[in-house]
Specification:
Shape: globular
Order of helices and strands: HHHEHEHEHEHEHHHHEHEEHEEH
Structural class: alpha/beta
Mean pLDDT: 94
Subcellular location: Cytoplasm
Bound molecules: 5-amino-5-deoxy-1-O-phosphono-D-mannitol
Organism: Gaoshiqia sediminis
Catalytic activity: D-fructose 6-phosphate + L-glutamine = D-glucosamine 6-phosphate + L-glutamate
Number of helices: 14
Number of strands: 10
Helix content: 40-55%
Largest sheet: 5 strands, parallel
Radius of gyration: 20 Å
Keywords: Aminotransferase, Cytoplasm, Glutamine amidotransferase, Membrane, Repeat, Transferase, Transmembrane, Transmembrane helix
Subunit structure: Homodimer.
Amino acid sequence: EKGDFEHYMLKEIFEQPKTIQDTYRGRIKADQKEIVLGGLLDVFPKIVNANRIIIIGCGTSWHAALVAEYLIEEYARIPVEVEYASEFRYRKPIINPGDVVMAISQSGETADTLAALKMAKAQGALILGICNVVGSSIARETDAGVYTHAGTEIGVASTKAFTAQVTVLTLFAFKLAKERGKISQELYEQLIGEMLAIPDKVQTILLSHPNIKKVAEKYKDAINALYLGRGYLFPVALEGALKLKEISYMHAEGYAAGEMKHGPIALVDDNLPVVVVSAKDSYYEKVVSNIQEVKARKGNVIAVVTEDDNGLRNMANDLFEVPESHPAVAALLAVVPLQLFAYYIAVMRGCNVDQPRNLAKSVTVE
Ligand code: M6R
């Protein structure tokens, strides 16, 4: 039921403080000193000793996988590869004993992801799944896994399933880091605390929706949009662009901000909205110079900034403010204004937000 919301997508965006909490509930132990992933208990020793983790998925789930790659490599120090399931299944990838293959899928029915998983299984890898739909084909195929508890997602554009996936993957990365002795108990508890603070912070962002709507009004007739981010916010840039294109049919591209000078900068003119996703992290100064490059070419900068930011806010044309957080959990916040931005633009363009043309909720054909 949509309740008071005009569309399922909007309802699902607004559910996120709850769905994120539902996803970590029972997995962060009451004393907040430990993460327990029940579905992985039996196989965790194998994962701790893995030589490599390969994560596969499609669309938004692939973006969640990219966040996981950065987290696992930074904190747990296991090499990670992320691949589109549609590529992985048809090329001849090398899968060695000691490799762990993890599939991410909201529906658990995506044909490419399922086929890729079966192939990896046949080659002897330990197969894990992060699915939202309980008892789905992918969930049944895996050796072990963790369910996201986002509830049924009806809007074709994935929103709450993405933040639930990132929540599980973040817990997974922190737990793995701790079990491998790569982080101290003190940092572990600090990171857990950062996760527990996310729902309230998402709520704060949701309350700013009138401002996001105003900005959407300004840019709704643009032909193209560019999304830039670095580090944990690079996948967020990709996800923001995917949301916009799939529901509003505005052409949008997400890029690692450092790649801008290798091509996309040629697109910048006074008609181009450039969404720059930033946080006060180690990339901050680099993002500042990316914005200067865009401004010098008269591009319109819409910046996702943290509340403590006072550099970028003076350079951008428009701002989406998000509460401060640790960089390891920042993607969970930065994506929210971009979901709303895409939503409002699509509504203003008269598009069918919940059922965009040519798309299905789960892609069960190859
Ligand atoms: O159900 P899955 O997570 O396997 O679906 C993967 C993609 O089809 C899905 O994320 C798609 O890209 C969404 N429409 C994105 O909003």
